[in-house]
User: What shape does this take?
Amino acid sequence: MTQILNENQSETIDTSETPLLQIRNLEVGFRTQRGLVPAVRGVDLTLYAGQSLAIVGESGSGKTTTAQAIIDLLPGTGSVTGGEILFEGRDLTKLPAKEIQDVRGRLIGYVPQDPMSNLNPVWNIGFQVEEAIKANGIAQGKEARLRAIQVLQEAGLSDASERLKQYPHQFSGGMRQRVLIGIGLSARPKLLIADEPTSALDVTVQRQILDHLGTLTRDYGTSVLFITHDLGLAAERAEQLVVMYRGKIVESGSSQEILANPQHPYTQRLVSAAPSLASRRIQSAKHADAAAPAIFSGDSLDATLIARAAEREQAAPDKPLISVQNVSKTYRIRQQGFKYNELKAVNGVSFGVQRGTTTAIVGESGSGKSTVAKLILQLESITSGKIEFDGQDVAALKGADLLKFRRRVQPVFQDPYGSLDPQYSVGNTIAEPLLAHKVGTAKERQARVLELLDQVSLPASTRYRYPSELSGGQRQRIAVARALALKPDVLVLDEAVSALDVLVQGQILNLLTELQTELGLTYLFITHDLAVVRLIADNVCVMKKGEIIEAATTDEVFDNPRETYTQDLLAAIPGGNFVFGR
Amino acid sequence: MQNRKFQEHFVAPIEETPVVAVDKLDESQKARSTWDDAWDSMRRRPSFWISSALIVLIVTVAAFPGLFTSVSPNLGCELANSNGAPTAGHPLGFTRQGCDVYARIIFGTQASVTVGLIATLLVTISGIIVGSLAGYYGGFLDAFVSRVGDIFFAIPTVLGAIVLMSVIPERTPLTVAFVLAVFAWPQIARIMRGAVLSASNSDYVTASTALGVSKFKILLRHVVPNSIAPVIVVATISLGTFIVAEATLSFLGIGLPPTVMSWGNDIAQAQTSIRTNPQVLLLPSAALSITVLSFLMLGDVVRDALDPAARARR
Assistant: This one.
């Protein structure tokens, strides 16, 4: 485990003290058209001064609602329906609004989830930090400005005094999150609630931010309440762990103990699904000798794995199915007047994808990985270079040939909430590609829809439903089914599992692996998440600033990364080296 | 690790929160489209039922005025009854010309509702076509359509209609509706253009492109259905305003000719007897207000039902 943790533990204070935060039997419900829906059902938790605690759970488990209840920030239709929240002995649920305001910010700081939408775009950064400082009565007038600079410097923005006049859009995601952390800590609160503080950020930035947060809170003796879906992060950054499931706490205690030896079946499931560097590629159950379609963690199956890899290599023909040769993509960005700036999104990229294998393209935001996907899908035109698919130059395709190409190469997009038309029933969505390519009669198309739903393990009745009724994972399965409708050779998966909970993510990855074996599919997997790459990919290309800086087999990249950038990426995975109990 | 501040390892009894299958589809609820949801939310509002009952009544009156009165609105006028008080068979009294007020209101409904419906239909259809083509294809078409729309937008509807009506030889409910539509389409077109712009940037449009669906089919199948909700809202509300506009034009003497019975004409004629017999003025005005208000009320309910953000706030 990390250094931070050990140092925290050594700061043992006398044991008779009252807890900083004690939640007893908390119940929160939301009013809906169908009556009161309970979101949190009897939660108990205790947090002492100077400790850090992480609430882990999938979306909808009630973790964020619990945090919001503490500082009375529940959305309009939610209310605390029972229990008490004791903060330094005062019950926050019974405080009048005025006193809660005093607690908020001054005693309990809050770092919200999304740095992109939580800063007001019409005010400059300095104003927003000063606002927090003034509202909490820490300093006024000129002093507030000086304090704002100090706060931002502490949050890791070294040139804070020059940046006060800048607006949120001039800051990157990581810098904005630093500003939010600065605001949250500006009043030196006793408790800081960090709701998924880094889930929108790249791993390397995430590590910096978390390290910084750790240092700051340790210096001030602030208690931290993390809300996260990331078990690795919880294991690395919090001493205490609370696992929530369907509005209840299923397991709580020391994080190391829980992760090493999970007791509740849900925790066990969560721990076993958490991808880490120690994971191995998922093997399909349909493969003759594989025991179970699970995510293997240990070294037990190394022998079969090596055999499998050899098998794949043998099966692979000499010529790659997709061959990308020295491809570049330049965007012209309009400047003031008639001037244009050139942005090289992709710069001289070359790689090949063998039939029946998975190639992952990994990189941080802005590395050009999604542009590569768009170029291969012919959704954007190539500036220079050549992409060949099955021996054909993709850029030269027109009319019927392009349509044929589209049949064979299908995309699955990142956002399962945006990629399905909300007005279309699932059946119509899956049938759309069949209709567009005039495949079969109406009856045959219906039969194919049912077959596809079965392939992605959804019941046949799903075809009458609409996307708004489905969860993110179910929508993503529908998107996969739609992509498979035309029996393509290649699926281009652009961050296809990034928006999903760990368990659902594991389920989709298993599904993809089985489909690959069953249908002989070739995957091009675009992702920022190296832990996922380990589970699904045979080959990896690491991209940075539009270029591929390292390309090799997955095992090679993970075991012997050559480039420092790759090493940094690997080291930044939260809890990457933590050995989970299985 | 002997710190006593550490809580003991707590494990909830498994019976309390049984683990269910990962991401299982909830099949207990009926499948629902966004339109089903909208219908569900409208169904629960009393103002929806009140306004639709009124609208059904008004439309029935407009279609079959004979069902509601046996008195002919024009032929039975006798000057002997001028400004007469209500009598048996003539519940609302008589106008200055000795015509039955109730019968005139009933027969006047047709003109007002026809103008309102036809104008709304024309505006909605033209606005949707123009707005979606401009928003979807962009470029020169968009610039041209938007500027033309701006020109019409700059002319006040009633003022423009006064000018146009005065050069039209024959004035019927149809021509009045057409003239109103000429000046009102840019509003719908603008709304449609905005909605189409945002819908055509969505992922499902990219997905369909990659699936090989043609550009025009994507417009028809995905973009338009997803952009139409705000247009429906505005159309429902503007139906009321078209009825008012017709009454205004008729009142000014440039809408429907006096031979066509309409509330606007009746209100105009009743001006002279406002002191002696105010109900002749007030009753057609009330009919006009009730009609307009019921359409506005319906528009309000429809907006709440189709706009999820507004729904969440309630």
Summary: Chain A has a mean pLDDT of 82.
